[in-house]
Design brief:
This protein is mainly α and about 80 residues long. It is built from six helices and no strands. The protein has one domain (about 5-80): lambda repressor-like DNA-binding domains (434 Repressor (Amino-terminal Domain), Orthogonal Bundle), CATH 1.10.260. About 60% of the residues lie in helices and about 0% in strands. α2 crosses α3 and α2 (about 20-25) packs across α4 (about 45-55). The longest helix is centred in the N-terminal third of the chain and has 11 residues, at about 5-15. The relative contact order is 0.15.
Length: about 80
Amino acid sequence: MSFGAFLAQRRQTLGLTQLDLADLADVGVTSVRTLEAGQLSPTLAITLRVLDALGLTLAAMPRADAESLGSDVATLHTTEVGYR
């Protein structure tokens, strides 16, 4: 799942519109739309604001560990913290 698709899925799970998320994250709705469409490589600041508004956090781990988790990284994380 792409980052944009993950954001859209989380937003929809929370019952938020793109405008709601933009307001919560203090970013423009165009930024949310282009992020979800995969057409924008966001700055770290925008990424952190959007993740925070969605009740998520950004974590870093060694590449080898992340690769061993494969495409299930997002699913594993959200399940562990009770989102789903």
